[in-house]
Amino acid sequence: MNLQDVGEEALLQQLFPLLPLNRDVIAGAGDDCAVARFGRSGDLLLLKTDCVVEEVHFSAAAKPSAVGWKAMARPLSDFAAMSALPRFALVTLIVPPARRVRWVTELYRGLAKAAKAFDVAIVGGETSRTNGPVIVSVSIVGSAEKERLVRRSGGQPGDDLFVTGRLGGSLGGRHLRFTPRIHESRWLTANFPVHAMMDLSDGLGADLPRLAAASGVGFEVEENAIPRHRGVSVSSAVSDGEDYELLFAVSSQDTAVLLRKWKQQWPLELTRIGRLTTAAEGSATLARGYAHYA
Questions:
Q1: Rounded distance, CA 181 to CA 183, Å?
Q2: How far apart, in whole angstroms, are the C-alpha atoms of residue 223 and residue 217?
Q3: Which of 1, 171, 205, 217 could form an S-S bond across to 286 if both were Cys, CB 3.0 to 4.6 Å?
C-alpha cells in the first residue's frame, strides 16, 4: 500500500501516535499551529512550519519574489487561524546548484516583504542542495493570550458559520499574492467570542469537515451563499483550495452585531454560509477539497 492508496488524513492518523509530547503541550499536531506553555508568561507559545514545493505549490515560471511571499504567508495564515501573533521565522531553502543567484535573492525579497508586513523577524534557517525541485520551508514562532486563542475544536451546535473574502479560482494567481488575515482575526477575538476557526488552505470542501470533526458536530451550508470570485462556480469555490481566508463559528446571537461592526471596520467581505448542527443531524455533502496524495 502506498501513500496514494492511504491518503493524507489516514497517514496522519498513523503518524500522530508516534510523536512524543510532554506536559507543556496544549495542542500538538492536528490543529493549525502547535500550542505550548513556555516560561512564566501568561501567554501561550505557538509554532508552525510549512513548505512550498516547485511544480506542486508554484510553477517554475512563477516570479521568485511571489514564491517567497507565498512561502512566508502560508504559515502566517495558520497564525491568523488561531488569532495568534507571529514573531520569529526560520527559512530552510533546498535548491539545485544550477539555480541562478538572482532567483534566490528575489525569493528572499518576497520572504522579507511578507515578514515585514506582520512585524516578523527572520532570524536564520538552513540551505541545502538537491537534484530535484526547489523546496522552501518556513517555520514561525509566536504567541497568543490564553483568552484569545481559538482552535478548531470549540464549535457548538447552532453556531453560525462565516468566511472572509471570496473563494475559488486561486490558481489564476491569487495563490501567490493572498494576504494572511491576522489583523482581521485579532479584531474578531478582541470583540467577539469566536468558538472555532481555521484558514481555508485545502478548500471549504476539505477544511469545513475538519473543523466540524474536531468540534464533534455536523454542519449545514447554504451553497448559494458561498462568496465566489467572478466566473467561479460553486463547485470550484468549494474545492479549488488555497484561498487562505478565515472560516469561523460564532453564536447565532452575535451574528447581527458582528455583520454590522465588521462592515464598519473592514472593506473585506464577511459572509454567513451556514451553521453547525448536532453530530446526529449529520453534515451537508460538499465537493471534495484538495487532497495531497490523491
A1: 6
A2: 19
A3: 205
